[in-house]
Each structure stands twice: as C-alpha cells, then as structure tokens.
Design brief:
Blueprint (H helix, E strand, L loop, with lengths): L4 E13 L8 E7 L2 E7 L15 E4 L2 H10 L3 E15 L2 E7 L6 E5 L3 H10 L12 H7 L9 E2 L2
C-alpha cells in the first residue's frame, strides 16, 4: 500500500531501578506475533533530535526467565508499561504509531539522518515546528498522566 511495509506488534517496557554499581538501563521485552526480543536500552540524551542510543537485543523464548535474569544481575523492576505499535517502513525511515492504555496515540519517526527525518515529516504533512523529540514518559507527562500511574501502564 503506497510503498509502505506494515508491521504490528505489542511491546512491554520494564523500567528498572539501577543500583550504583550497574550501568543505567531501560529493559524492553517486545512481542512480534510469536517472537520475543529482549533489549537493554542506554539512557536517553534529551538534547538530540535523532535517537542514536545503543540498544543491544537478543531473541528469547520465555519472558519470566528474562525477568528473573534481570533481577538476578541486580536490577529491580521500577515500572511496567505496555503499548501496541504499528510500524510503517517508508523509504529509509521508520514511522511508528503507538497506542498505550492511557493518553491519545502518538507517533515516532526514525531515520539515519536529520534530513531524512525532516523529509518524512513533510511527506506526512508536518512541519518541524509541529514535531519534537521526547520519551514515552515525557509524552505521558505532557498529557498530565500522574507519576504514580506511570509505574503500571497495562491494557
């Protein structure tokens, strides 16, 4: 359809409390149909428009075992957030439409360069002034979701 590749997937992010001796990370377990992927995301840099964080990931078969490993190496669950995501591949860009259990749906554009991100915004009918870079947490705060509710966002 219009040169787009479309993927549907569910995603669960486990925010973890990081002890001082361990590197700060956000853990994600993503389910694409029947495939499970575990990722450890590096901290987000607030002042960049293109998110180039390291995000090593591995395919896994059992979510409970992954959560047990996360705790065994010293991380403690701080929050659990679920969202559904529809991904569109448009040229060199990835356009992702997210739906969480609270707040309106939101979109993300990822591409290898700032120019490609901007070109994709324009193809979608947006100007740079209508867009911005923020984390899911920032998005929920923008929509006045209370902090205590951010610790457990599930469907």
């Amino acid at each position: 359809f219009l040169g787009l590749t479309i993927l549907e997937r569910g995603e669960q992010t486990i925010k973890v409390q990081t002890p001082e001796k361990l590197p700060k990370r956000s853990m994600r377990i993503r389910k694409d149909r029947e495939k499970l992927t575990w990722a450890a995301k590096h901290p987000r840099t607030k002042d960049v428009t293109i998110d180039k964080r390291a995000e090593p990931e591995v395919d896994v078969t059992d979510q409970q075992s992954v959560e047990a490993i996360i705790e065994e190496i010293g991380y403690m669950r701080k929050s659990l957030r679920q969202k559904y995501r529809t991904t569109f591949i448009l040229g060199k860009a990835t356009v992702e439409l997210n739906r969480g259990p609270v707040a309106p749906p939101w979109g993300e554009v990822e591409a290898p360069t700032e120019e490609e991100v901007q070109r994709t915004y324009e193809l979608l009918g947006y100007t740079k002034g209508q867009t911005g870079s923020m984390s899911d947490s920032d998005f929920y705060r923008l929509h006045k979701i209370p902090e205590e509710q951010l610790t457990h966002l599930t469907f």
